[in-house]
Every structure is written in C-alpha cells, then in structure tokens.
Amino acid sequence: MYLPVIGLEVHAQLLTKSKMFCSCSTDHENAPPNTLVCPICMGMPGVLPVPNKKAIELLIKTALALNCEISPFSKFDRKNYFYPDLPKGYQISQYDLPLARGGYVEFEVDSEIKRVRLKRIHLEEDTGKLLHVGEGDRLAEAEYSLVDLNRCGIPLMEIVTEPDIHSPKEARLFLQELRKILRYLEVSSGDMEKGSLRCDANVSVMTEKGILGIRTEIKNVNSFYSLEKALEYEIERQINLLKEGKEVIQETRHWDEKKQITVTLRGKEEAEDYRYFPEPDIPPIIISKEILEEIKKTIPPLPLQRKLLLQNTLFLSPIESEIITSEKELCEFFDECLKLYNNPKNLSNWITVELMSYLNDQKLNFRDLNIEPKRFVKIIEMVDKNEITRPVGKEILRKYLDTKEDPEKIVEKEGLKTVSDLDFLKEIVKRVIDGNERAVLDYLKGKKNVINFLVGQVMKETKGRASLDLVKNLLEEELNKR
Amino acid sequence: MIRNFIQQLRKTAHLARLNLTEEEEELYSKQLEEILNYFQKLQELDTSNVEPMAHVLPLNNVWREDEIKESMEKELILKNAPEIENNCFKVPKIVKNI
C-alpha cells in the first residue's frame, strides 16, 4: 500500500482594474494583442514599478479569511529566468518575506471536515500569453510562437499548501472550496477555463513504512476534473515504477489533456536556479494593525460556514445547503427571500428545484439573472394560498425570468388563477371520461393507475389551473358512478 | 581554484544566455575573481546581530491606487519586434524536439 502525498500551488489573478506595478488595464480578454502594455510591464530600462495597493489589500483579505499570519514586514524580490512570455527576464515576486504565512483551508470530504494547512501566500505578477503555432498546438510540436503581453503584469496571488492532501479527490475538493472562498471574498473570479485560477501539483507516494517518495510536479492542469485525472495517472505511474524496483525522477511533468497522461518536458537541462535577490526598485511593505483591522471588516462569512448554518439551524439537507451556498449571490438571494417568507424548507425547494432547473435549461449562472426576491416570493405565496397551482407557479416563474414582468400581472393577464368553479370542473371531468372509453374500461377492470392519465387529460384542458387532488377526487367520484 | 571558477563562470554565463569565447572566459574569470575576492573582505565582518537590509532607502509602502491609465500605442510597442504576426511578437521555437 502506498499513500499519495500531495501539495498544491494555486495561482489566482486578483480582481484589480489595473496591473500590479503599472496602470495598464487588466481587461486582457477583451483587448486585441499587445494593446494593454507600457514601458513598465514591457520591462524597458529605466522605468519604475509601483505596487498596486488594492492588490496587496486583496491578498491580505484572502490571507485573513484563511487564518494566515500577516507579515508585518514584507518585500518583493526578482526571480530571474528567461522565457519569451517574460520580457523583463525576471518576474517580480516574493521570496523569503511573503505577505502571509501559515493558515489553513477547511472543506468537506464525504461529509467530514478536512483541514489542509497553508505554507504561504505571496504576491507576484503574471506573465504574457504564448500562442504556439505549428502542426499541433502543443509546445513541443510548435514551429514558432506568438507573444501577447496584455496579461503580463496582472497581479497574481500564489497560495502554497503543505503536503496535507492524500488523494486526487481531496485535491479537487480542496481546489473547489478554495475557488468558492475566493469568489465569496470577491478577490478573484476563480475562472479556471479562462486561466484566472491555475494549479500546479506536487505529488509523491509514501511507502507503508512511512518513507517519503521522490516528488514530481504536474503543470498544465486546466480544470478541477483534469487535476483529479492528472493526479490519478501520476500516482499510478509512480507506484508502478516503485513496484518494478525503479526510481521516480524528480522533474516537472505536463498533463496532456488529449492523451490523458503526464509527460516529461525535456529541454530544461539543469536544475532551475532563479538567483532571487531583493527588488531594488520597490521599498518594503509594512502592514499596520490599523490596515489589518480595516480589511478584517470586509470579510463575509465563508461558504462552508454558511452551508453548515443552513443545515444546522434551518434544517436544510446537505445537498440543498450545498446548492444554495455554491455562489455568494445565490446565498444572499436566499437570505433576502427568507426575510420575506418564513418557510426555509419550501423556499429552498423552490430555489434548488425550480430555479435551478431554469438555470440549467437556459445555461445561465445565477448572477446573470437579476431576479427580485419580492417577485420570487410572491409566486411561492400564490401557490401556497392555492391562488395558482404548483405547475402554473413553475410556468409563471419561467415567464417572469424571461420577461421580468410582474408575476401577479402575468397571472391576471393570462387567466391562470386556479379554477375553483366545481360545476365547470365537473363538466370537463365528464367530457374527459366520455372521450377516453378505453382508459375508463381499463380503470373499471382494476387498473387503478390509469387515473393518472385521466388526471393529466383534465389538467391539459384546464391548462394546469386545477388542483390535482380536487381533479382526482372528482374523477374517482364520476368513475365510480359508471 | 581557477578551474573551479571557470565552471562557475560558465554556469553564470549560461543562465544569462551569454556565449563566451575561450579568450573571454579567461579574461572575465580573472576579472570577476578579483572582484569577488575583494568582496570576500566583507565576510570578515561579524554581521550576526545585523538585520538583513531589504532596501537602501528609508522608505516603505510606496504604492499607488488601483487606477487605469492609458497604455502605449500598439504601433510603438511593436516597433521593437524583429518579427510580427497578428499583432504579436513572433519568437522562434522555444523547446527543442525530444
């Protein structure tokens, strides 16, 4: 038996308007190549980088939320290496005095709380983007590459964990929780597809006797799913090597998404030597207690805290609580609705079933919706009061979300109020029974389930405006006369 | 000692992506060695009670507000590029084939 030992390095772009050391915009996705650059982020001689205060504050906000210790004295360093996406020939980063150390992230694994400790969080700048041109789109197959420096210099927060993770699934759940936290804190969009959140994994396997194995580093993991897959593959590869009596080589391996394997990327012929030294252009950063207190006030309750609160005080199921706390905006919407409507169980049901199915169908995110708690609750109340039936309520919710029209007006305009006129309903029941001789015969022979078909026919005639129980009763009453 | 130093010089030159001729290696190693030996003198000082200095100026927290200013014109930026394609800098193959 081998125990996987995994540590993660997570890079998150911070949500600032301007870059880390210059005033170029960070909106790199919506700009043509090389239009958001200046002499500072291009690394031209004689320029002066000046840190973005907001980026430092966002990092501290994250660090406080993750229980880190904030360094009262911190500095920037130069990390020297050559690569075409790094025009200065060095990256401004932090080496021995990062802004934050220690701390931890808690998350759920199979309903149990697991804690992963953090080593440090530091601030650095992102690199440019490379587009590899050639037969494949992979680096090794490229004939040449194109460099777009718009992303170069965007503030990047690096979160490094201790090797406390012991399975690929745990690694994925950790990263998903961390993303959620970053989004709750509004420090990063956490979008892995767009590369705002990136993750490298260090992995080794420990033998039964507790001997630590040699680790490899996996790069190019672009989704939660590929993080799990890449780790599964790499752990199996290492175990197989050890079983064959071979050695694991300490190296960087790339996750090949197409082939679903990790591959070594030779070409880096020797161990890396970054020759860090203090950045002479940037004086040190001193964080006062006052700054910390100010930032502390801006930290909202975190998603796991919120989730457990829903489970333990409102008695929602773990799945419902998970869905409602999946996005901060949705969680706040739930809170707002709850102020207007004091039935958490029913409210949760409408959100996790009806609202979610609308979002799934329309392929929308909750934050794109612009839904008003007052209107949403009104629909639920109309159903509760039997003014409309549940199927009609569902339909009105969809119409409301499509048009943003007042739900009450939709009901009125389209005549969707529940039909309580007994004579009218009885007439429809009779008509349905007369029109479905075969079903009626089956029912009378004992196939009681057929009644659901007949109920459906009546509902169709009333456009869903009749109470199900009432229709069923009326049908049974009428059928028993035959 | 000299031999050892040439090894170190070659490593440093490689990290800086400099190609040195044999003559240059000899010249620079001599010069650099002299410089380093001179600095060696500093090692004689007892600095065990001195905090490492992070910066030469008595300044801290020199930072700016998060505000966007206009970037440079693309045409100007690309003037520095030996080769351009699709408004990007075109660079040769990065990693050799395995």
List the helices and strands and how they pair.
The complex is a heterodimer of chains A (482) and B (98).
Chain A lengths: L2 E11 L39 H13 L3 E2 L2 E2 L2 E4 L9 E4 L6 E2 L2 E6 L2 E14 L3 E6 L7 E7 L6 E7 L6 H18 L11 E10 L9 E6 L2 H20 L8 E5 L4 E4 L12 E2 L6 E2 L2 H8 L6 H11 L4 H7 L3 H13 L3 H19 L10 H12 L5 H14 L3 H8 L7 H14 L1 H8 L5 H12 L6 H13 L2
Parallel strand pairs in A: 13-14
Antiparallel strand pairs in A: 1-11, 1-12, 2-6, 3-17, 4-5, 4-16, 6-8, 7-8, 8-11, 9-10, 12-13, 14-15
Chain B lengths: L1 H14 L6 H19 L33 H5 L5 E2 L2 E5 L6
Antiparallel strand pairs in B: 1-2
Helix pairs in contact in B: 1-2
What is this entry, summarized?
The complex is a heterodimer of chains A (482) and B (98). Helix content of chain A is 39%, strand content 20%.
Task: For the structure shown, list the relevant keywords.
heterodimer; A: 482 residues; alpha+beta; Arc Repressor Mutant, subunit A; 3 domains; 10-stranded mixed sheet; 3-stranded antiparallel sheet; 15 helices; B: 98 residues; mainly alpha; Histone, subunit A
Mean pLDDT of chain A: 93
For the termini of chain B, the CA-CA separation is 36 Å
**Continuous helix count of chain A:** 15
Portion in helices of chain A: 25-40%
Averaged pLDDT of chain B: 88
Question: Ends of chain A: how far apart?
Answer: 72 Å
Number of helices of chain B: 3
Question: Strands of the largest sheet of chain B, in order across it?
Answer: 1-2
Structural shape of chain B: flat
Kindly estimate the percentage of residues of chain A that lie in beta strands according to DSSP.
15-25%
Structure summary, number of beta strands of chain B: 2
Structural class of chain A: alpha+beta
Rg of chain B is 22 Å
Give the second-level CATH assignment, the architecture of the domain at 2-44 in chain B.
Answer: Orthogonal Bundle
Q: Largest interface, by Cβ-Cβ below 8 angstroms: which chains and how many residues each? A: A-B, 55 and 38 residues
